[in-house]
Amino acid sequence: MTHPSLSPEAPQTSAQRFALEGSWDAEAPERWEKRLPDVARQLCQIAQAGGDGLDLLRCSFPRLSEHICAIKKFSAPLALWGESRNWDEHAKQQIVEPAILDAIGRMAGREMCGMTLHAGLLHTYGYLFSLVATPFGYKRDRWLHEEMGARFALPDDTFSPLPQEGSLLLNLTYFLGSIVFSPQVAQRRTLQRLRKYLPSTLTGYPFSALQRWRVTEALSFVPPRGSRPRQLRIHTDLVYPVASLENVQLLIYSLEAPADRFALITAFFTSPDYVETLLRQPQGQHVEISLRYNASFGGLENASHLGVRAIRPM
Length: 314
Hints:
Elements (H helix, E strand, L loop, with lengths): L13 H8 L6 H21 L5 H7 L1 H12 L9 E3 L12 H11 L7 E3 H10 L4 E2 L2 E2 L2 H4 L3 H4 L16 H13 L6 H8 L5 H4 L7 E11 L8 E11 L8 E8 L5 E9 L1 H8 L4 E6 L5 E2 L8 E9 L1
Antiparallel strand pairs: 1-2, 1-10, 3-4, 5-6, 5-11, 6-7, 7-8, 9-11
Helix pairs in contact: 3-4, 4-5, 5-6, 9-10
């Protein structure tokens, strides 16, 4: 059966490939803001017609696709992330067309189908192609418009879709992991393996100078069809930028299970009011705790559980 194709001709030369995406300059966010939704809509049309949009994705964003394909050869960053659901609790709909996530997963060598997905791939490359308008804007805004690099005194393109050095997933994984993972955990060794692929501005970054608070929530639960309780610690780190353009903080959400590993889930900027709300939550034992920010953890239902909460500066 022949499916309709909306794919452009594959760029033949490096100049043609560069021209499609350009460098990450002052006008880049607006250029990408126009192209990403257009290509995402075409990918949705192909999926609805029963086709495969992988070629369109590769031809429309050749260098971005190369960054994603490189993950298949060096998958170490993937091990530092947990799982997420492709569902926005505010918009009450899927965040990214599943066929787009499937194509990204095939390029990265990681299955991206089903109810739970790799959080790192979903929250970076997947979010670039989301068409869902949420009360907080589009998911791609954090990589196009929130200027995470500038807020932390790093080059503007550090956490862009197409940084000059490293990649969005590599740079973000190292940055978040260096803040969240304590020196004792095994994940630090994986971060060391990433260093040779990263810009010196990241490998030499003064992470210890960053001011932050941590909300830690601990709970015990028995998974469905399980017989033994599982332990889980949920960490919400609130990090103060060193060169903030506005009065915002970076929220980093991660999960720690003693029987498994320490896993990143997501990161985004949030308002001082929301930070204050998080820091004023009840502490101590027998407080209600639930997963947030579309995180998923095996066997834990998306409902409130009684646990222990502690809030402290780091």
